[in-house]
Amino acid sequence: MKKIISPKMHGMMDYALGTALMTLPAMVGVNEKASGNYRKLAAGMSTLNVLTDTPAGLRKVIPFKTHKKADAGLLGMLALATMSKTIRKDPKALAFHLALLGVAGLNYALTDYNAVGSATPKTN
Fold first, then answer.
1. Residue 124 has what pLDDT?
2. Residue 83 covered by a domain
3. Which tens digit of pLDDT belongs to each residue from 35-76?
């Protein structure tokens, strides 16, 4: 599969996803407990993104390859969270969650984590 998302684009998409997680669940009527969990997830994701060494990062202390590992962990956690009662028993929460899982999965699968394009130039 061709990796079409650059490190810069991945960072920008992470910021957009974090903003969506902060606002959309309440707007679409997801229950308050699930909405609160999405806000916490957004805060964690945004912090990771701010600290990642990409053109979109602000502090650049976390290597992009480490960010990839964190993304894989978040995807696993999201997959498992599908079974939680706060999501599974609320049709709006389940629909939102499955859409989130799909978007996050595509973002992960299509990102070129090996691309030259992180903020720190590579040296020999």
1. 43
2. yes
3. 999 999 999 999 999 999 999 999 999 999 999 999 999 999
pTM: 0.88
The burial of 37, by beta-carbon neighbours within 10 Å (0-12 exposed, 13-18 middle, 19 or more buried), is given as: buried
Whether 18 is in a domain gets the answer yes
Contact indicator for 113, 5 with CB cutoff of 8 Å? no
Residue type, 53: D
CA-to-CA distance for 76 and 72, rounded, in angstroms? 6
Does residue 121 form part of some domain?
Answer: no
Token pair in block for residue 98: 């499955």
* Helices and strands (DSSP H and E) totals, the chain: 5, 0
Structure tokens at 18: 């974090």
d(CA 29, CA 39): 14
